Amino acid sequence: MGFIHVTVAALCCVVVVFVGFPLSSNAELDPSFYKNTCPNVSSIVREVVRNVSKSDPRIFTSLIRLHFHDCFVLGCDASILLNNTDTPTKIESEQQDSPNSNLRGFDVVNQIKTAVENACPGIVSCADILTLAAEVSSVLAGGPNWEVPLGRRDGLTANRTLANQNLPSGLFNLTQLKSAFAAQGLNTIDLVALSGAHTIGKAHCSSINSRLFNFSNNDKPDPTLDPSYLQTLRNTCPNNGPETNLANFDPTTPDTFDNNYYTNLQDKKGLLQSDQALFSTSDADTISIVNTFASNQDAFYESYKASMIKMGNIGVLMGKNGEIRKQCNFINKKLVDQLDLASVVPKKSLEEGIVSSF
């Protein structure tokens, strides 16, 4: 969730993303999918991410966020990686919309793809690389590890409209958050667990300025903010100051993947409005989940792993659907020439809509 550093705006509607390509019959993702064809893929991904993190410690949260933003639009099919193209078919990149305007890590995904192609050409999808990179990032940041189910194939299109519609906003209240997650088949526990990825990373001041100075247009700060934390944030994000300044999601252990995100919520130190809403919404069922994760890091880790696997299953392409891209930013021309794209692209993915963001 960004999982993740964010840019925010309002959202008006939620669209279910399970309208993508159908799964092949009896197909299942499997952690051993590349056992015989690319047995070292996980270690290759890990090595690239580890090397990049030496000079860019933010890469962990960036890669987790990329996976999240991919799966919430057309499913986990690497559509987030596609650039604008006119041929062999026109694609409007999801990277150009508001919720994705500050995404990072595309170059690192391409580094991983190059390394994997050198070892196992034409075998590993970009969608699986995104999923593996998210798990590796969790581990290298000190968080949990899990066996990543594999076997995804890459999509043949992107959908900027759905990116604007489906991605939850940092300005969301709890009702809006639940609706956005439910649209992806994710429940309340998934919402709280996946939000825990905000234990690492940073957000632009533009994401929180309204909470600091003009919450609900009343020229006052958000009352759910701890006063001392409010002052700390105002020092980082002064009124009318640079909106590109960065604030840590977790003011206690900002670079470690732990459960302090939840203790921060208990202390009214959630960075985004959508973070604090998990604990400060009156009589919310999320409060008890936050309390459990705050007091038991193992419980958080177990739920986070389960929810990441569940999210990674959204709308996946398998079997003969989609393709294995040679380059993550472009679809393969040869395959497109053989297909009637109108027969495989969901109608809703061709529609235009209003802008919203995460």
From TrEMBL:
InterPro entries reported in the protein's UniProt record: Haem_peroxidase, Haem_peroxidase_sf, Peroxidase_pln, Peroxidases_heam-ligand_BS, Secretory_peroxidase
GO BP terms in the entry: hydrogen peroxide catabolic process; response to oxidative stress
A Pfam family per the record: peroxidase
Stretch forming the signal peptide: 1-27
Cofactor binding comment, as recorded: Binds 1 heme b (iron(II)-protoporphyrin IX) group per subunit.
Principal EC category: oxidoreductase
Role according to the record: Removal of H(2)O(2), oxidation of toxic reductants, biosynthesis and degradation of lignin, suberization, auxin catabolism, response to environmental stresses such as wounding, pathogen attack and oxidative stress. These functions might be dependent on each isozyme/isoform in each plant tissue.
Catalytic activity, as annotated: 2 a phenolic donor + H2O2 = 2 a phenolic radical donor + 2 H2O
Ligand binding (heme b): H198
Cofactor(s) named in the record: heme b; Ca(2+)
Positions with a binding annotation for Ca(2+) 1: D70, V73, G75, D77, S79, E94
Disulfide-bonded cysteines: C38-C120, C71-C76, C126-C328, C205-C237
Source organism of the structure: Lupinus angustifolius (Narrow-leaved blue lupine)
Residues the entry annotates as binding Ca(2+) 2: T199, D250, T253, D258
Keywords: Calcium, Disulfide bond, Glycoprotein, Heme, Hydrogen peroxide, Iron, Metal-binding, Oxidoreductase, Peroxidase, Secreted, Signal
Family per record: Belongs to the peroxidase family. Ascorbate peroxidase subfamily. Belongs to the peroxidase family. Classical plant (class III) peroxidase subfamily.
Lineage: Eukaryota, Viridiplantae, Streptophyta, Embryophyta, Tracheophyta
Protein's name in the database: Peroxidase
UniProt site positions, description: Transition state stabilizer: R65
